[in-house]
Amino acid sequence: MRIGIVCYPTFGGSGVVATELGLALAEEGHIVHFITYDRPVRLDPRIANVFYHEVRVSDYPLFDYQPYELVLTSKLVDVVMHERLDLLHVHYAIPHASAAWMAQQILRAKGIHVPFITTLHGTDITLVGRDPSFEPVITFAMERSTAVTAVSESLRKDTYDHFPVHREIQVIPNFIRMDRYASAANPQLRERFAPRGEKLLVHVSNFRPVKRVMDVLKVFTAMREQMPARLLLIGDGPDRHAAETFCRANGTCNDVLFLGKMTDPEAVVASCDLFLLTSETESFGLAALEAMACGVPVVTTDTGGTPEVVESGVAGLLNPVGDVEAMTRNAMEVLANLDKFRKGALQCASRFDIARVLPRYEALYAEVVEQVKADGIHQ
Ligand code: GMT
User: Same domain, yes or no, for 360 and 307?
Assistant: First the structure.
């Protein structure tokens, strides 16, 4: 098939999932066109069957706010027509789903029928999506998508709870390439980050308030009082400054290493003992799944889709949001039984291996292409 993928090209999980999906489809022989405002961070231009189209927003001075959605729509029309795409798959509803719908209408007027699938990822529904100013557009775009998927049962439920949507939403979970993560651990990195044999904790996120990064630091600080430990923080974002201020105030700067954004964090993550994820809400928790695939157990919050990903007592332990004491206690408990939890993490992650998930997307693609063909014939 000839597939167009629209996503955010940044470090967020939705962009990572979209990119990995496109790369896996290309490996299967499909032709994949990425349509985004920048090259997705994990998109290797040397890979066969993969193409990239940049959406360029003008800087015309009349516009205080540049009309990104319109430029994206025009680009979608252009790429679908000239690359003869069979379907569009848009990741993160805002504004990709409504742009895809608009492109579909323009193409229909030209006699071209293209289906589009919207995959809901998280804050497009749970945070941003709940802003009433977005609701009518998102609801409409979901209703008009040829198919809608959500990355967890929890996100599917949240969508029905917060939007007046009546259509079917299929759950297709995020996935992982187990083979890529299994051998990621690097003893030299371990030596570099824990030279005195300290326990190594790690957190990966975009440091937005929803991640509650300060809870990560509080848990770490409490653990460090009980044993030698260091914390690696991967990523960057609005709460980084507050995190640095906290470390300075608590005298932990030497043991908290801010590594910034990383394209392939798995070698670092795999060299650690425990992954901490303290989010207020998390529709899936891809970062936790990546850690588990490296054999690193996860101490996280019992919220959104995380219980579907991290089996408590097996791959790690779940805790109430904000309960720093429970998280500290449970993190110590996991470290005391590390071998058991490491095995559990690998076992739990393998449920999401790409080999299980990719065929579900391929089946859905075949279904929507057939559906639109049939609709086109009847029109
Ligand atoms: O909402 C975000 O944080 C951004 C979004 C993204 O683009 O990374 O993350 C969401 O999608 C990921 C991939 O499906 C999920 O693993 C994250 O759990 C989800 N984030 C939240 O729900 C907070």
Answer: no
